[in-house]
Amino acid sequence: MVRPYTMKGHKRKKKSEEDKYDREGEEEEEVAEEQPDGFDEDDQGQEEEAVHEMEGIPIGPSDRNTKKPGVIFVLEKASLEVAKVGKSYQILNSDDHANFLKRNNKNAGDYRPDIVHQALLSILDSPLTKAGRLRAVYVKTEKGVLFEVKPHVRLPRTYKRFSGIMLQLLQKLSITAAGKREKLLRVIKNPVTQYLPVNSKKIGFSYSSEKLVKMRNHVATISDDMDLVFVVGAMAHGKIETDYTDGLVAISGYPMSAARCIARICEALEDKWDIL
Ligand SMILES: C[S@@+](CC[C@H](N)C(=O)[O-])C[C@H]1O[C@@H](n2cnc3c(N)ncnc32)[C@H](O)[C@@H]1O
């Protein structure tokens, strides 16, 4: 069950006809409203009005005032799609919605929100994050919605509660810690490049890259005062397509989960920066 939250002044967006599934014979079920690519100044005003307090999202401990170079993760192609299944809106996943997806001619194997959950936990649990070196995480969904995750957020560890929070984020556009004004999760305007430090090194990751590197050696070659941006896929199949990275590297001769790939990246940096 999703923990309680409070909400004021929320305006619903119009449904996009184009993105609805074929609903023949599906009177009870419909795809949720198209999620926006971001919001303009006016929308931000509305968003200010809407305060969503999540008791389930406390602020975690981390050294937040470090001036040392930092790390940003971008998780691309995350499977976080909202649909009305029966009477309620839900984040679609291949376990719980196999029949629904089949009826709507969708490949259930593509609906894997657990991948982004595990990837986020892998980032947020790392000593690198606890040492205050994580600047931000940006998640871009398969549908093109971009949101920011603050480094000090403590996400639910169980999938059920995580999906409840993702659902509220995608519907209300931001989530604030209980009793605070700071938004710990918020939908933001595309493109992600406008939030990345100008002089940062941006590395994309793919098993299919011909450049196979040992991550520890690879990060050792990067200047010590440069911020680093790591772009990892949060989807089940396919390859990240990014025009903003300085190329793609493979960091193992084997395909890994996004969470495992992230753990390898974090460990290499913890080594480089003597974070124990
Ligand atoms: C579940 S995988 C995606 C599956 C996809 N077939 C692939 O291998 O790219 C999630 C992400 O982990 C990263 N990844 C997985 N194995 C990797 C490897 N050996 N080297 C570099 N990145 C890897 C990639 O960014 C990938 O998009």
Structure, described:
The protein is α/β, with parallel strands linked by helices and 276 residues long. It has one domain: 3-Layer(aba) Sandwich (Alpha/beta knot). 24% of the residues lie in helices and 20% in strands. The strands form two sheets. It has a nine-stranded mixed β-sheet with strand order 2-8-9-7-6-3-11-10-12. A three-stranded antiparallel β-sheet has the order 1-4-5. A hairpin with a 2-residue loop joins strand 4 and strand 5. Helix 3 runs parallel beside helix 7. The N terminus is likely disordered. The structure holds S-adenosylmethionine. S-adenosylmethionine binds next to strand 11 and helix 7. The site of S-adenosylmethionine has 19 residues, from strand 11 and helix 7.
What does this entry show, briefly?
By secondary structure, the protein is of the alpha/beta class.
Q: Which characteristics define this entry?
A:
276 residues; Alpha/beta knot; alpha/beta; 12 strands; binds S-adenosylmethionine; 7 helices; single chain; three-stranded antiparallel β-sheet
| Count of helical regions | 7
In total, how many beta strands?
A: 12
Strand content: 15-25%
The rough form would be described as globular
Based on CA atoms alone, the radius of gyration comes out at 19 Å
List the helices and strands and how they pair.
Blueprint: E1 30-31, H1 41-49, E2 53-54, E3 71-78, E4 82-85, E5 88-91, H2 98-103, H3 113-124, H4 127-130, E6 134-141, E7 146-149, H5 159-172, E8 174-177, E9 183-188, E10 201-205, H6 215-220, E11 228-233, E12 248-249, H7 258-272
Parallel strand pairs: 2-8, 3-6, 3-11, 10-11, 10-12
Antiparallel strand pairs: 1-4, 4-5, 6-7, 7-9, 8-9
Helix pairs in contact: 3-7
The structure holds S-adenosylmethionine.
Residues 205-207, 232-233, 235, 237-240, 250-252, 254-258, 261 line the site of S-adenosylmethionine.
